[in-house]
C-alpha cells in the first residue's frame, strides 16, 4: 500500500484511486470473514459450502496428479513389455542357433506355444491401449509407445 506521504506526491486521481481500492479490499476481506462465520454457524462442517468448495478443488488437483501417475505407470508397463519381448526374442534366436550348432533337436512345440501365448497377451494389451485412443485417429500405424507418451492418451 502507498502511505499518506507518498499519496501526496502522486497525482490526485491516482491518490483517490488508491484510497478507493484500499477501502474495497478491506470491505471484501470483511465480507469474506463474515461469510465464513455465518457458514460455520449455519452449517455443520461436512456441509459447509466454503469447505465443500475447498474439498472439490483439492480433489481436482489430486485427480490431475493421479492421471499423471497413471500415465507414467502405463509408460513404465509398456517399456517393461517392450524390453521383455526383445529379451525373449533374442534369447529364443540364440537358443535356436545353439541347438542347431550342437545337433540337438529344435525347440519343442510346447515352448513355441508359450512364446505364441506371450505374443497373444502382448497383442491383447496393445489392442486395449489402441481401443482407449480417441476414435477417428489412425492408431493402427502408430507405435504403441507414441500413444502412451502422447499428452492425453486416455479420455
From TrEMBL:
GO terms for cellular component: outer kinetochore; spindle microtubule. InterPro entries: Ska2 (IPR026762), Ska2_N (IPR042091). It is found in: Chromosome, Centromere, Kinetochore; Cytoplasm, Cytoskeleton, Spindle. Residues 129-155 are annotated as: Disordered. Keywords: Cell cycle, Cell division, Centromere, Chromosome, Coiled coil, Cytoplasm, Cytoskeleton, Kinetochore, Microtubule, Mitosis. Residues 56-83 form a coiled coil. The keyword Coiled coil applies. The keyword Cell cycle applies. Pfam families: SKA2. This is Protein FAM33A. It comes from Rhynchospora breviuscula.
Amino acid at each position: 500500500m502507498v502511505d499518506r506521504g507518498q499519496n501526496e506526491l502522486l497525482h490526485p486521481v491516482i491518490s483517490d484511486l488508491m484510497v478507493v481500492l484500499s477501502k474495497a479490499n478491506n470491505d471484501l476481506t470483511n465480507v469474506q470473514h463474515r461469510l465464513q462465520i455465518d457458514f460455520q454457524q449455519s452449517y455443520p462442517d461436512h456441509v459447509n459450502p466454503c469447505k465443500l468448495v475447498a474439498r472439490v478443488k483439492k480433489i481436482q488437483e489430486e485427480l490431475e496428479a493421479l492421471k499423471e501417475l497413471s500415465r507414467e505407470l502405463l509408460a513404465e508397463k509398456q517399456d517393461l513389455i517392450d524390453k521383455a519381448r526383445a529379451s525373449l526374442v533374442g534369447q529364443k534366436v540364440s537358443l535356436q542357433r545353439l541347438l542347431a550348432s550342437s545337433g540337438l533337436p529344435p525347440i519343442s512345440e510346447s515352448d513355441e506355444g508359450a512364446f505364441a501365448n506371450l505374443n497373444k497377451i502382448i497383442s491383447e494389451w496393445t489392442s486395449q491401449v489402441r481401443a482407449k485412443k480417441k476414435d477417428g485417429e489412425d492408431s493402427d500405424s502408430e507405435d504403441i509407445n507414441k500413444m502412451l507418451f502422447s499428452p492425453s492418451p486416455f479420455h
